[in-house]
UniProtKB/TrEMBL annotation:
<feature type="domain" description="Elp3/MiaA/NifB-like radical SAM core">
    <location>
        <begin position="59"/>
        <end position="286"/>
    </location>
</feature>
<dbReference type="GO" id="GO:0003824">
    <property type="term" value="F:catalytic activity"/>
</dbReference>
<keyword id="KW-0411">Iron-sulfur</keyword>
<dbReference type="InterPro" id="IPR051675">
    <property type="entry name" value="Endo/Exo/Phosphatase_dom_1"/>
</dbReference>
<dbReference type="Pfam" id="PF04055">
    <property type="entry name" value="Radical_SAM"/>
</dbReference>
<protein>
    <submittedName>
        <fullName>Putative DNA modification/repair radical SAM protein</fullName>
    </submittedName>
</protein>
<dbReference type="InterPro" id="IPR023874">
    <property type="entry name" value="DNA_rSAM_put"/>
</dbReference>
<dbReference type="GO" id="GO:0046872">
    <property type="term" value="F:metal ion binding"/>
</dbReference>
<dbReference type="InterPro" id="IPR010994">
    <property type="entry name" value="RuvA_2-like"/>
</dbReference>
<dbReference type="GO" id="GO:0051536">
    <property type="term" value="F:iron-sulfur cluster binding"/>
</dbReference>
<dbReference type="InterPro" id="IPR013785">
    <property type="entry name" value="Aldolase_TIM"/>
</dbReference>
<keyword id="KW-0408">Iron</keyword>
<dbReference type="InterPro" id="IPR006638">
    <property type="entry name" value="Elp3/MiaA/NifB-like_rSAM"/>
</dbReference>
<keyword id="KW-0479">Metal-binding</keyword>
<keyword id="KW-0949">S-adenosyl-L-methionine</keyword>
<dbReference type="InterPro" id="IPR058240">
    <property type="entry name" value="rSAM_sf"/>
</dbReference>
<dbReference type="InterPro" id="IPR007197">
    <property type="entry name" value="rSAM"/>
</dbReference>
């Protein structure tokens, strides 16, 4: 490997990290250095692009330790047989970069992943050393997210949880058959075993904190994972089912989806084209339905096409479910429980909470609901208000043309 300066390494390894989608910084413990001790914070506003649910922007230095790898996963641009320019940081270099960027107010934290060099244990040791040095040698209190290696020694993965806010262990592909075909050196059993061990450690750490205030925090932002969409034959119905299983078994904070992107000199077993980015977006929306709208996994899967198993691309999964199960509508905004209101297409969680609060004092009309939404057009066939009953709309055999978003040609050079 040719000698590269820090700037060249950063250009290569920051670009190589763009395929990791799971870099949100939500859910961690709040820390700052206002007491004059330590360095960094998880609360400040940054200039980068990882957003917490409460609107905070946590800027992260997102890099790989190295893009060299001893594995040869077909879908990975950094695979052993790939003809890409390689680079590698030492643990000390990553620590210096993180501290330097923080002091310049560029970042508030670090997202660190890596290809596998020498062995899984050696690579995991280097990742843990970065986090350990930041925490113990420099008292860094900013956010740290570590990608862990499933077949590394469990003690090393445990050490990662002691120093990082969030850890992630990627399942890579939605199905075991897809993983065996496209990443034969990886094992679903090892991946799920590591996730189960992390779940146990997080639970034990939480219990210890309740009993002893001096107990160390263990991965306070939990664990997440990522799935590649479109590299194998898995349908959206398969992916939603897999995500639901992961949430249930391992208490994950997030499942991230990354649309497969064709890579140079790709293997013949990979598709020639990437899936529509809208497919990735629809999967995130289906994930939101399970996490915030109280939909059961089977209900979300039912929104997919019966023949293909795919979610529709032209309408969101919530609207697709409502059109498929019209016997659940219309819903009376003045009487329906929260669970039923959350099923109405176009009503978000905030709007439903506002409706529940407002109707305690007076009966709501259609105009009142309209003030809480972007467009009342989508809602009209699915709700009953004090001055509105969708009699004619409810009797229509086909509602989709009325409620689906209108297609329009976008301008390339719009002002």
């Amino acid at each position: 490997m040719a000698q590269l300066d820090t700037r060249e390494k950063l250009a290569i390894l920051a670009d190589a990290a763009k395929y990791d989608a799971s870099c949100a910084s939500s859910g961690t413990a709040k820390r700052n250095s206002r007491d004059g001790k330590g360095l960094g914070s998880t609360e400040g506003m940054g200039i980068c692009h990882a957003y917490a649910p409460d609107g905070r922007c946590i800027s992260l230095l997102k890099i790989l330790l190295t893009n060299s790898c001893i594995f040869d996963c077909h879908y990975c641009i950094n695979r052993k047989s790939s003809n890409v320019r390689r680079a590698r940081f030492t643990a000390e270099e990553v620590v210096r970069l993180t501290l330097s960027f923080y002091r310049r107010n560029y970042i508030e934290g670090l997202f660190l992943s890596s290809g596998i060099i020498r062995s899984s244990n050696y690579t995991m040791e280097q990742l843990v050393e970065v986090a350990r040095s930041l925490r113990e040698d420099h008292d860094f209190r900013g956010y740290i997210h570590l990608k862990t290696i499933p077949d590394a020694d469990p003690e090393l993965i445990h050490q990662a949880g002691l120093h990082a806010d969030r850890v992630s262990i990627n399942v890579e592909l939605p199905t075991a058959s897809g993983l065996k075909r496209l990443a034969p050196e990886k094992s679903e059993t090892q991946i799920e075993g590591a996730m189960a061990g992390m779940r146990t450690a997080i639970t034990d750490g939480t219990d210890a904190r309740k009993r002893y205030r001096s107990a160390p925090r263990f991965a306070p932002a939990g664990q997440s994972t990522q799935m590649i969409v479109g590299a194998d034959a898995a349908t959206d119905r398969d992916i939603v089912g897999r995500a639901a299983t992961l949430y249930d078994r391992f208490e994950l904070r997030r499942v991230y989806y990354s649309a497969f992107s064709p890579i140079p000199e790709a293997s013949a077993v990979l598709p020639l084209q990437r899936p529509p980015l809208m497919r990735e977006h629809r999967l995130y929306q289906s994930d939101w339905l399970m996490r915030f709208y109280d939909y059961k996994p089977d209900e979300v899967r039912a929104a997919a096409d019966d023949a293909t198993g795919m979610l529709p691309l032209d309408i969101d999964p919530k609207l697709a479910w409502a059109l498929k199960f019209r016997d659940n509508f219309p819903v009376d905004v003045n009487r329906a429980p929260r669970e039923a209101l959350l099923r109405v297409p176009g009503l978000g969680v905030k709007a439903v909470n506002a409706i529940l609060s407002a109707r305690r004092w007076r009966r709501l009309r259609l105009d009142d609901v309209a003030r809480l939404t972007v467009s009342i057009k989508k809602l009209r066939p699915f709700l009953v208000a004090d001055d509105w009953r969708p009699v004619a709309l409810a009797d229509r055999a086909e509602l989709k043309p009325l409620v689906a978003p209108r297609k329009q040609q976008l301008e390339l050079f719009a002002a």
